[in-house]
Specification:
Number of helices of chain A: 6
Mean pLDDT of chain A: 95
Radius of gyration of chain A: 16 Å
Number of strands of chain A: 11
Strand content of chain A: 35-45%
Order of helices and strands of chain A: HEEEHEHEEEEHEHEEH
Strand order of the largest sheet of chain A: 6-7-5-4-8-9-10-11
Structural class of chain A: alpha/beta
Oligomer: homodimer
Distance between the termini of chain A: 16 Å
CATH architecture of chain A: 3-Layer(aba) Sandwich
CATH topology of chain A: Rossmann fold
CATH class of chain A: Alpha Beta
Low-confidence stretches of chain A: none
Chain lengths: 195, 195
């Protein structure tokens, strides 16, 4: 998505450890008009996927997910993060390891919000090692729902998350695919196709 | 806002301790179309307030705040919650006590996202004792920005948050004002004006 790539080049900052900081428009300060454009793009990409519900993880996934939900007119459920989980009778839970923070969290959603006939689109702001997506897969499996696809705002294709989703045979659409960092420069997969 | 009140009556559940559970459309599962209608209503209510930025607190405030931001075409910043705060040089922080959870959290936002000429609209999903709003007031004061108003999705007018905002002389607009719970029945301020 050209508009997003341009914004990353303009406002993103590359930090040591191949971390891209985009807190100016995506995950701390949010640009709602850009989010809406992204939601519309997700709706377009998954228009034939029979999506009945969108699932994401708090907090950074919420803005892109609700905009996709607005464009697709389907409900959005955001999984809650906890240090630990108690009283889990009414919850589907999964453990998610964060490579950035080097800690484990549990994510959970109330069972009543996933029905067996749901076709669920998973949305998240970043795809790196795919731990959050894997946690959402686990929750979907426990709920016996069909996964309609995975929609990612910014994907680092050189990390392991991409393969994890491919191995599962689930369709992945990322609005910006970063192939490499070169010092503080960001390279996108779209550069190759444009060349 | 009639549509919101009807949804509360249909899907809300009153729990002991005057807690209204609305996890079916507001703070766990989200109805994006209703959120957009609410965002449009906030934009209408504050159209003459000169709003340059919206501030909210993760996670439940994000969906209504980004929809208001979409309708007003202004950026949205969501404050992060932490158990404790370290490395605060670049952050504005405030302590927020939760009466529901009986714990204190710190909220923070990066200093660079509040400029002295900003006129900030504070948005949150619930107003009860007003602790989150008070935390946002504190952050705005530290940043020397003007507070353009407070927009709340569901207000419990019989708790102390309403007065806290009135005492500060800040304009408050709530899309649903709950005056009392009567067993599992919810009463709105609009019932009085309609009578």
């Amino acid at each position: 998505m050209r508009e997003l790539e341009e914004r990353i080049l303009k406002d993103g900052r590359v930090l040591p450890g191949e971390v891209l900081k985009v807190d100016g428009f995506l995950n701390h300060q949010v640009d709602p008009d850009l989010m809406f454009a992204m939601g519309t793009e997700f709706a377009h990409l998954f228009q034939d996927a029979g999506v009945t519900k969108i699932l994401t993880v708090e907090s950074s996934g919420i803005a892109p997910a609700v905009m996709a939900g607005l464009a697709m007119h389907v409900p959005v459920v955001f999984a809650r993060k906890h240090k630990s989980v108690t009283l889990i009778d009414d919850l589907y839970t999964a453990e998610v390891y964060s490579y950035t923070k080097k800690t484990s969290n549990h994510i959970s959603i109330a069972k009543k919000f996933l029905q067996a006939d749901d076709q669920v689109l998973l949305i998240d702001d970043f795809l790196a090692n795919g731990q959050a997506v894997q946690g959402m897969f686990e929750i979907c499996d426990k709920a016996h729902v069909k996964i309609a696809g995975v929609g990612i705002v910014i994907e680092k294709v050189f990390q392991t998350g991409h393969q994890l989703i491919a191995d599962r045979g689930v369709r992945l659409e990322s609005l910006a695919q970063i192939t490499s960092f070169d010092g503080d420069r960001v390279h996108f997969a779209s550069e190759d196709t444009q060349a």
